[in-house]
């Protein structure tokens, strides 16, 4: 089959899923395609360019999914619902690709226009909601970093050591709150975590919150 940029991206994502960033090379991609590495350079000049193309594809898929999710919202949906729709669609897009969270986390380094578009739309949603400019970047980073970190854990390797029944009992005994918090439906937990973030972002508009004032550091505002 004739080489094309799309085929090279497909192979690159497959190699990335198996071997990660450090295992990805033009040689390995060429091997998967049963082609000579030199023949790929006409379409993709180097590994950095390939990573950018891969990140762009993943981010564009996530962007399109987010557009569909936003369109499906009922008329008059508030900004927290809009942020939630974008977050849920991005998580689902990352989960569809093994190693997707790692690739997305590195996407700013390769100046992925798709990833930048995701951030721009999220920031626009927050700005239109009235979030002050000084808080926009932090709020947007908090949301995207949370999504990436959440999926990184979901896509992580299983425990490196065997865990027997006795170990499970001991873990429950020593760390009851942590073990209990680790259970439950992951979809529901994710949505609730995004809503918690939105509540925190909304609180930035409250007097004394987010401006470093003494009242923001004490529940009562009393340091006497």
Task: Give a short summary of the structure.
By secondary structure, the protein is mainly α. It is 70% helix and 0% strand. It contains 12 helices and no strands.
Q: What is the arithmetic mean of pLDDT? A: 86
Q: Per DSSP, what share of the residues sits in E-state strands of 2 or more residues?
A: under 5%
Unreliable residue stretches: none
Cα shape:
flat
Biggest sheet details: none
Rg (C-alpha, Å): 21 Å
**Roughly what percent helix?**
over 70%
- Kindly name the structural category: mainly alpha
Total number of β-strand segments? Answer: 0
Number of helical regions: 12
Task: Give structural attributes.
single chain; 224 residues; mainly alpha; flat
Description:
This protein is an all-alpha fold and 224 residues long. The chain has 12 helices and no strands. Helix 1 packs across helix 2 (26-33). The longest helix is centred in the N-terminal third of the chain and has 25 residues, at 47-71. It is flat.
